[in-house]
């Protein structure tokens, strides 16, 4: 669910001032009202405003310790036709909503989305643990390329679990009590505190990837506070990890084969005319022997890292030519895998929050080495070339020894009492398989499913047709006709 490439998501956010007290959220909790100030820079819109909202660390103890939630705002440019507040989330977990609004991420500066800028106050929010909100902190890097993520024996399995536990303990010590409260349900309650602070009776929501899990959690908790909601690149948080890890690996493998078929004949792909799949397998074998160098990192990439970097490029169809160039550079002798290395998900600066939130929401549920090996065998069967990395496999291994109990594991849900929510899925999405969009839509009473018949992660980033449908829906509240599909 994470998009690690800087070409896709802007980074950075605005600083924020203190808050003033105190209105009341819909669940009765006291919420601070923000004191806005100008925070624009030469790289952001002149109208950018920033603030913070104070919320309980633990929503079950509203009078206890508090944390800060960073928000920013661009007011509607057509104030006379203002619809309301549109909150956006770019995914992750760990994506910064404030950076999205401040720097035009999620294509908010694109011509297709111009009406949103005109008719809505665009609101960015950093979920708890992320960005300029009270953050997850770790004294050492959470990502450890030396940790065995594909253990071949019990000793390696024990090392994997110990590595996960060691990093979790470090983050818990450095972060404090927040480490146990960065789950998505708590973040959804923060959204309602922000709603109250904004003075809005209802909000609109545009969430992609992880932003669909967060949006769905909000809709379940506060259905009467939703005006309109787009969930694009849907995550279904009801399915077991054993199933999801195979689903995602299957989708990644299918998308890699589609890339390979395109790359073999496309003029814009560097290894034109070669056997892309066979060459990739050779590259992985070389990586397993430590022969694939990344000069920027000053070390070889592992086979899992080569797979992770490849996956990151697969998520955006317009990056496929760059993936071809990156693979060609890595495959030559001597190799230069720096383009793949910069896309490795674990090396992204947001990874500590990504790991901490994921372990709260997606505990692996492993019962020892034999269980892991059985799960890995299923993954290898589903993805014979791309099996070494998926985000769900990252959570399976990275959360195997995490010392903090998961607060929001997958569970059945039924969302009722909301307006027609628009769920969007790509038929070839490698990160959030299309089946998840269909199943999430079935869980939301009265929802509408919009399908994009194309490649890449989320329709928002890959389809003008889908963007137009999403904008029309957000403006009017009227969902597209049942069965609406966008062609590639």
TrEMBL record:
<feature type="domain" description="AB hydrolase-1">
    <location>
        <begin position="85"/>
        <end position="269"/>
    </location>
</feature>
<protein>
    <submittedName>
        <fullName>Peptidase</fullName>
    </submittedName>
</protein>
<dbReference type="InterPro" id="IPR000073">
    <property type="entry name" value="AB_hydrolase_1"/>
</dbReference>
<dbReference type="Pfam" id="PF08386">
    <property type="entry name" value="Abhydrolase_4"/>
</dbReference>
<feature type="domain" description="Peptidase S33 tripeptidyl aminopeptidase-like C-terminal">
    <location>
        <begin position="389"/>
        <end position="486"/>
    </location>
</feature>
<keyword id="KW-0732">Signal</keyword>
<dbReference type="InterPro" id="IPR051601">
    <property type="entry name" value="Serine_prot/Carboxylest_S33"/>
</dbReference>
<keyword id="KW-0378">Hydrolase</keyword>
<comment type="similarity">
    <text>Belongs to the peptidase S33 family.</text>
</comment>
<feature type="signal peptide">
    <location>
        <begin position="1"/>
        <end position="20"/>
    </location>
</feature>
<dbReference type="Pfam" id="PF00561">
    <property type="entry name" value="Abhydrolase_1"/>
</dbReference>
<dbReference type="GO" id="GO:0016787">
    <property type="term" value="F:hydrolase activity"/>
</dbReference>
<dbReference type="InterPro" id="IPR029058">
    <property type="entry name" value="AB_hydrolase_fold"/>
</dbReference>
<dbReference type="InterPro" id="IPR013595">
    <property type="entry name" value="Pept_S33_TAP-like_C"/>
</dbReference>
């Amino acid at each position: 669910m994470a998009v690690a490439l800087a070409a896709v998501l802007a980074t950075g956010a605005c600083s924020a001032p203190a808050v003033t007290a105190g209105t009341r959220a819909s669940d009765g909790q006291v919420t601070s009202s923000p004191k806005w100030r100008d925070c624009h820079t030469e790289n952001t819109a002149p109208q950018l405003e920033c603030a913070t909202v104070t919320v309980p660390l633990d929503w079950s103890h509203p009078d206890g310790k508090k944390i800060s939630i960073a928000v920013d705002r661009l007011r509607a440019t057509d104030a006379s036709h203002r619809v309301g507040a549109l909150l956006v989330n770019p995914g992750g977990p760990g994506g910064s909503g404030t950076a999205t609004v401040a720097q035009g991420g999620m294509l908010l500066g694109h011509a297709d989305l111009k009406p949103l800028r005109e008719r809505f106050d665009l609101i960015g929010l950093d979920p708890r643990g992320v960005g300029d909100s009270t953050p997850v902190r770790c004294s050492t890097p959470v990502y450890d390329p030396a940790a065995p993520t594909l253990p071949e024996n019990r000793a390696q399995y024990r090392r994997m679990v110990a590595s996960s536990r060691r990093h979790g303990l470090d983050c818990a010590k450095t972060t404090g009590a927040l480490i146990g409260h960065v789950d998505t349900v708590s973040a959804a309650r923060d959204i309602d505190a922000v709603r109250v602070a904004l003075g809005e009776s209802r909000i609109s929501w545009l969430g992609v990837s992880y932003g669909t899990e967060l949006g769905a959690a909000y809709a379940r908790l506060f259905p009467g506070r939703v005006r309109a909601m787009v969930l694009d690149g849907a995550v279904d948080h009801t399915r077991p990890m054993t199933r999801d890890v195979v689903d995602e690996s299957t989708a990644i493998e299918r998308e890699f084969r589609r890339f390979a078929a395109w790359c073999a004949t496309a003029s814009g792909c560097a290894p034109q005319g070669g056997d892309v799949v066979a060459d990739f397998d050779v590259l992985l074998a070389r990586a397993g022997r430590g022969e694939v160098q990344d000069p920027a990192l000053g070390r070889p990439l592992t086979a899992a890292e080569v797979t992770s970097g490849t996956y990151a490029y697969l998520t955006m169809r317009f990056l496929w030519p760059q993936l071809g160039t990156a693979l060609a550079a890595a495959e030559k002798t001597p190799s230069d895998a720096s383009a793949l290395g910069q896309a490795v998900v674990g090396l992204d600066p947001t990874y500590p929050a990504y790991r901490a939130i994921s372990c709260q929401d997606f505990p692996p549920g492993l019962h020892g080495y034999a269980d892991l090996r059985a799960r890995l065998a299923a993954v290898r069967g589903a993805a014979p070339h791309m099996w070494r990395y998926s985000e769900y496999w990252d959570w399976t291994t990275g959360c195997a020894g995490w010392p903090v109990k998961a607060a929001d594991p997958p569970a059945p849900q039924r969302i009722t009492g909301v307006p027609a929510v628009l769920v969007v899925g790509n038929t070839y999405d490698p990160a959030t398989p299309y089946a998840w969009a269909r199943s999430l839509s079935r869980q939301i009473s009265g929802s509408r499913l919009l399908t994009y018949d194309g490649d890449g992660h989320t329709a928002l980033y890959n389809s003008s047709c889908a963007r137009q449908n999403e904008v029309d829906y957000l403006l009017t509240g009227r969902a597209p006709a049942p069965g609406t599909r966008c062609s590639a």
